[in-house]
Write a structure and sequence with these properties.
Shape: elongated
Number of strands: 2
Radius of gyration: 13 Å
Number of domains: 1
Strand order of the largest sheet: 1-2
Distance between the termini: 20 Å
Strand content: 25-35%
Largest sheet: 2 strands, antiparallel
Order of helices and strands: EE
Number of helices: 0
Helix content: under 10%
Length: about 35
């Protein structure tokens, strides 16, 4: 869930896998990432 935090990710450009230029965000909740 989003109760304990979340991350926002944006991939932009051809090297990021886009074939059509646009701004797109992912909002991801869940477990803490290992560091």
């Amino acid at each position: 869930g989003l109760d304990n935090g979340y991350r926002v990710i944006s991939n932009v450009g051809e090297d990021a896998g886009q074939t059509v230029k646009h701004l797109h965000f992912h909002v991801l909740g869940g477990e803490k990432l290992p560091v």
